[in-house]
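Researcher: Quick test of sequence recovery. Tokens follow.
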């Protein structure tokens, strides 16, 4: 999945963030399904997992590494979930799907029957990334 370069949002828009920061946050959100799978895979009972390799600062204690990994994934998942809920409580599920799966309004309207127009959705989409930018600072 390549990054589609779009026209940059006007700096006069209330939800403006710098273009490269937006792409950083967008790619951060696209990791959400990976975090969910990794979090669910970490039950503390399985053998050494490749997911725990990045948490190697606690040698010899697989339980602590597992707990640290679960905390790492849960913080990121929670941050994205909370920001989607903050953006709009009624449309949070649609916003979450849009930003974590990279799907467009057309998909959300056709497959999931989103109950708002394109302009409202993309205004909330921009607000989501604006809020996430403030949270991640």
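Model:
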């Amino acid at each position: 999945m390549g990054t589609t370069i779009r026209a940059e949002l006007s700096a006069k828009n209330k939800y403006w963030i710098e273009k490269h920061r937006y792409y950083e946050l967008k790619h951060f959100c696209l990791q959400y399904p990976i975090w969910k799978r990794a979090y669910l895979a970490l039950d503390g009972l399985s053998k050494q997992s490749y997911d725990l390799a990045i948490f190697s600062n606690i040698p010899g204690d697989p339980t602590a590494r597992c707990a640290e990994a679960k905390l790492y994934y849960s913080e990121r998942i929670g941050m994205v979930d909370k920001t989607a809920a903050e953006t709009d409580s009624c449309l949070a599920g649609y916003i979450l799907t849009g930003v974590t799966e990279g799907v467009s309004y057309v998909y959300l309207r056709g497959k999931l029957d989103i109950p708002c127009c394109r302009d409202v959705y993309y205004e909330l989409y921009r607000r989501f990334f604006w809020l996430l930018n403030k949270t991640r600072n």
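The mean pLDDT is 87.
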